[in-house]
Amino acid sequence: MLSDTSLPVIQATLPVVGEHIEEIAKRFYKHMFEAQPDLLDGLFNRGNQADGRQQQALAGSIAAFAGMLVEKPDQVPDHLLSRVAHKHVSLGLSPDQYQIVHDHLMWAIVDVLGDAVTPEVAAAWDEVYWLMANLLINKERGLYNAVHLSPETIWRTWRVVQRIQETADVVSFVVERTDERDVKPSLPGQYVTLKMTMPDGVQQPRQYSLTKADDGQHRQFAVKRVHGLPTPDGEMSTLLHNDVQVGDEVVLSAPFGDVVLEYTDRPLVMASAGIGITPMAGMLSHLVQSGSRRQVMLLHADDSEATFPLRAQVTEDLAKLADGTLKTWFLTPAEAAEAGEATGSVFSGFMDVSDVELPDDAEYYLCGPLPFLKSVRSALIAGGVPAKDIQYEVFGPDLWLADFQ
Ligand SMILES: Cc1cc2nc3c(=O)[nH]c(=O)nc-3n(C[C@H](O)[C@H](O)[C@H](O)COP(=O)(O)OP(=O)(O)OC[C@H]3O[C@@H](n4cnc5c(N)ncnc54)[C@H](O)[C@@H]3O)c2cc1C
Ligand code: HEM
């Protein structure tokens, strides 16, 4: 909670900071990377920097947090903090790095707002920063401790033992441990960070959802090739598709991620689009492994049957469950798919959840591009599903978080 001294100052300056937060974030990053270029070598995702998404995510989260401190001082925005903390630990962030971000961020606030930043204003925003930073540091410490790891020990080398061409644009990688140490267990829906050296010698991290339950020796994930045009091709996905072969070694973090399956008996509805199938495949694999009796419905949208990644795997897993069903929406249904339309399991066009009868009291997991998430979530809420029963994963900085608080 904010001190009595800072509360009115934050109240008074929130609008002007909010108005300039994107500029503040932009200058903050530029200043920080000029002073510490090593942060772009192995920690920050330069793809997100290039198109501005990370700046917006950070700006949105700080503005949302300050707004909450003012409007709902007794509530902690747990969803926002959890998401950020899991992302941070999957990158091996350490507490001492918070001072670096603090110093450059405070510099940027003064640089953008100038004389408006009196010592009182600076002190109040300093307090907001450290309130949020300390909540994150504590959460991150808890996450490291829970798996008996530290920022230095989350990384481990694996050997690629299989490459599976799932669709024209998606390849699965099966990797095996290279030593006898125990493999950290993953929760259904979690991701790992993959760290690779790019052709220019710079290390880059990217997250990939695990698509199979643990077997104590392997991890499996599926990567969609990111075609650029007019922007550059995705650097990690292109490298993985073109250059990483069976026998090669890769470095992965331990699994993290806050969007995980709850262990309940309630019906489960998963809604995905495109490569958003990956966390759902991981969850289904866990459900099969644990012999779950839950009612499970997978709703998936894709361009066509041919572009639906991991289709065989999820279909087989649904068939192994006591009560698993698949409903698909294809923009261009093939003949076989059109035949399925008569049975009410295949639909044309974008996903419309009102096409199907959803189970009562279900838990919902969504994953796909933002427009898909927004439209499906809105339709579910309009249909009476409580917001607390809908969780979602976004394959990028979560620009949507601020809207939820
Ligand atoms: C929790 C989580 C789970 C994920 N799970 C999966 C998964 O299971 N499977 C999967 O395939 N992906 C997954 N992702 C996405 C994955 O982490 C990568 O973001 C994705 O593979 C693209 O990385 P890349 O290096 O190929 O692309 P990047 O090089 O990061 O490029 C990303 C985008 O930025 C654009 N860009 C790059 N440089 C510039 C520039 N200079 N100017 C303008 N635009 C530019 C590119 O054209 C591209 O559109 C997940 C992400 C998260 C956060
Ligand atoms: C109070 C301080 C901080 C806040 C509020 C904050 C906030 C955020 C947010 C909102 C995200 C995006 C999460 C997502 O949706 O995926 C993020 C990611 C990230 N943060 Fe922080 N962060 C803080 C401190 C730090 C520090 C100290 C570092 C390290 C120097 C750091 C490094 C990163 C990195 C590398 C990412 C992932 C970037 C990417 O993938 O593009 N953060 N942070």
Task: Describe this entry's structure for a reader.
With 405 residues, the chain is α/β, with parallel strands linked by helices. It folds into three domains: 6-146, Globins (Globin-like); 155-253, Translation factors (Elongation Factor Tu (Ef-tu), domain 3, Beta Barrel), CATH 2.40.30; 268-404, Rossmann fold (3-Layer(aba) Sandwich), CATH 3.40.50.80. Helix content is 41%, strand content 20%. The chain is built from twelve helices and twelve strands. It has helices at residues 6-35, 46-50, 53-71, 78-90, 97-113, 119-146, 235-243, 277-289, 311-320, 335-341, 370-382, 401-404; strands at 155-167, 170-177, 191-197, 203-209, 218-224, 249-253, 268-273, 295-302, 323-330, 346-348, 363-367, 390-393. A six-stranded antiparallel sheet has the order 4-3-6-1-2-5. Strands 10-9-8-7-11-12 form a six-stranded parallel sheet, sandwiched between helices. β8 (295-302), α9 and β9 form a beta-alpha-beta unit. α5 packs antiparallel against α6 (119-146) and α8 (277-289) packs parallel to α9 (311-320). The radius of gyration is 22 Å and the shape is globular. The two termini are 16 Å apart. The structure holds flavin-adenine dinucleotide and protoporphyrin IX containing FE.
Mean pLDDT: 93
Helix share bin: 40-55%
Number of strands: 12
| Continuous helix count | 12
In CATH, the architecture of the largest domain is Orthogonal Bundle
Write down the secondary-structure element order: HHHHHHEEEEEHEEHEHEHEEHEH
CATH homologous superfamily caption of the largest domain:
Globins
Hetero ligands: flavin-adenine dinucleotide, protoporphyrin IX containing FE
Read across the widest sheet, the strand sequence of neighbours is 4-3-6-1-2-5
